[in-house]
Amino acid sequence: MRLILKEPEPRKRCIQCRERLPLSAFHKSSVASIDGYRNVCKSCRRATEAARIREKRNELL
């Protein structure tokens, strides 16, 4: 009987939160890095964009 080991999903470190996350937590981008994924995870990017939008909205008011 052979034991079949599942390969773990590849992981990458987010440069903003410093956590090692699976590649599914990063947006794909052909120009962002060598591996084809952005360097900032989806949740950090979402938080950064929300803060930028809030700041822009306050400038307009």
Q: Would you kindly provide a written description of the structure presented here, covering whatever features stand out?
A:
Helix content is about 30%, strand content about 25%. β3 and β4 form a beta hairpin. It has one domain (about 10-60). It is of the alpha+beta class and about 60 residues long. The strands form two sheets. A two-stranded antiparallel sheet has the order 1-2. The protein has a two-stranded antiparallel sheet with strand order 3-4. This is HNH endonuclease.
The residue fraction in helices comes out at 25-40%
In quaternary terms, these chains amount to single chain
Instruction: Determine Rg (CA atoms, Å).
Output: 17 Å
Instruction: Tell me the domain tally.
Output: 1
* Count of helical stretches: 1
Would you tell me the overall average pLDDT? 89
Which outline best applies?
elongated
Largest sheet: 2 strands, antiparallel
Q: How do the helices and strands follow one another from N- to C-terminus?
A: EEEEH
**Number of distinct beta strands:** 4
Main sheet: which strands, in order across? 1-2
What structural category characterises the helix and strand content? alpha+beta
Tell me the fraction of residues in β-strands, as a range.
15-25%
Q: Report how far apart the termini are.
A: 69 Å
Low-confidence stretches: none
Organism: Salmonella enterica subsp. enterica serovar Newport str. CFSAN000835
Protein name: HNH endonuclease
